[in-house]
């Protein structure tokens, strides 16, 4: 994803991340050409941490990795056999 963002930036093209917002915030925050982040709250229950939204801005966490980890109990609860 970083390589695609850099390629788009080389051609002055904007990007936007989609769906799993929790896992794409680090890309959005590090890409000067990212103009928006799509947030669908459908996946919120799968994560131990919640996103912080202040005045319409999603705060990028400073925790390790993407800043979000899966809640294993929630993943099991929604798993299909």
What does this protein structure show overall?
- It contains 3 helices and 4 strands; from the N terminus they run H-E-H-E-E-E-H.
- It is an alpha+beta fold.
- The chain has one domain.
- The strands form 2 sheets. Strands 1-2 form a two-stranded parallel ribbon.
- The model has no long low-confidence stretch (mean pLDDT 91).
Radius of gyration: 14 Å
Shape: elongated
Which series of helices and strands comes N to C? HEHEEEH
Total helical segments = 3
- If you average the pLDDT, what whole number results? 91
Q: Could you give the count of β-strands?
A: 4
Distance between the termini: 31 Å
In total, the number of domains comes to 1
Beta strand %: 5-15%
Task: Describe the sheet with the most strands.
Answer: 2 strands, parallel
The assigned structural class equals alpha+beta
Low-confidence stretches: none
Helix content: 25-40%
Main β-sheet, spatial strand arrangement: 1-2
Quick take:
This protein is an alpha+beta fold and 81 residues long. The protein has helices at residues 2-10, 21-30, 72-78, and strands at residues 15-17, 34-37, 53-54, 57-58. The protein has one domain.
What's the layout of helices and strands?
Layout: H1 2-10, E1 15-17, H2 21-30, E2 34-37, E3 53-54, E4 57-58, H3 72-78
Parallel strand pairs: 1-2
Antiparallel strand pairs: 3-4
Features:
two-stranded parallel ribbon, alpha+beta, 81 residues, two-stranded antiparallel sheet, single chain, 4 strands, elongated
